[in-house]
Amino acid sequence: MTPYVHKEPLLTLDNVSMSYNGEVVLRDISAQVCDVVRPHMTQGQVVGFYGRSGIGKSVLCRIIAGLTPPAAGTVKVGQEQRPVRAGDVGLVQQRYPLFNHRTLADNLLLAASRQHDPDRAQREVAAFLDRFRLTPHRQKYPAQLSGGQRQRAAIAQQLLCSDHLILLDEPFSGLDVAMIDEVKKIILEVTTMDELNTVVIVSHDIATTTALSDTLWLLGYERDAAGQVLPGATISKDHQYDLAGMGLAWHPQVEAEPEFNRFVEELKNEIRAV
Ligand SMILES: Nc1ncnc2c1ncn2[C@@H]1O[C@H](COP(=O)(O)OP(=O)(O)OP(=O)(O)O)[C@@H](O)[C@H]1O
């Protein structure tokens, strides 16, 4: 098994609950992402986040991103573990938040200017354009970029203006196989760029997402002792998987391994059942 240790927490959800108009959507969610440290590696964190349609994944993402306050509980982010504020966490939604009337370089500059002084912002943007192979496209407008280029730009934008933690909402949906490989590569790049970079991937593509992740969270319903389904979805301890501990994280060819495929089938059954 690949040697690793978990160090300080980077994201902590403490008894997070949410209701809308008296309907409990999320109930008492407690979960944590800690800094993964591997010898001689810059290793960020990847959490795969699953749950059936309509169960509350987007609601939890907005709470983690500090965009919606929870009805109860707290979200703490970063090495300082301070309560999350809007803007601390990048959220890459399917509708990319690029401004259509600005060039790619201007879009990124706008994002970087929220974190850095003008000189530093210019340098950061140049470095990100280079890293994400977007330098030749810097003067194009979003409508002139391919889907993959836009996806890379949206991820770069969120990394530039947030603080190491980004949430990707369905990054693989509607993409062809080559594009899926491209997005996988970007996610790997992001997590090997900086030790503290943490990516939470919300996806219905269980195999692709699990292959990239070191941790999984499964949002589901629990039953009480009498077998009654409790209101609101939660991430029970049984549904927080440490893939690194299971020996299933960080293998480039993990999708070809029988043990991985058995686990993915088990997971799918678990998702169907909850
Ligand atoms: N602003 C809101 N007001 C009232 N109800 C809401 C609001 N936002 C979300 N909900 C409800 O919360 C529940 C969870 O919605 P959410 O969008 O988080 O599901 P999801 O797991 O992301 O689904 P999908 O996988 O289909 O995107 C739904 O029943 C939804 O109607």
From TrEMBL:
InterPro entries documented for this protein: AAA+_ATPase, ABC_transporter-like_ATP-bd, ABC_transporter-like_CS, ABC_transporter_ATP-bind, P-loop_NTPase
The keyword Nucleotide-binding belongs to this UniProt entry's keyword annotation: yes
Protein name: ABC transporter ATP-binding protein
Domain ABC transporter stretches: 11-246
Pfam family, one: ABC_tran
Alphabetic keyword roster: ATP-binding, Nucleotide-binding, Transport
Gene Ontology MF term list: ATP binding; ATP hydrolysis activity
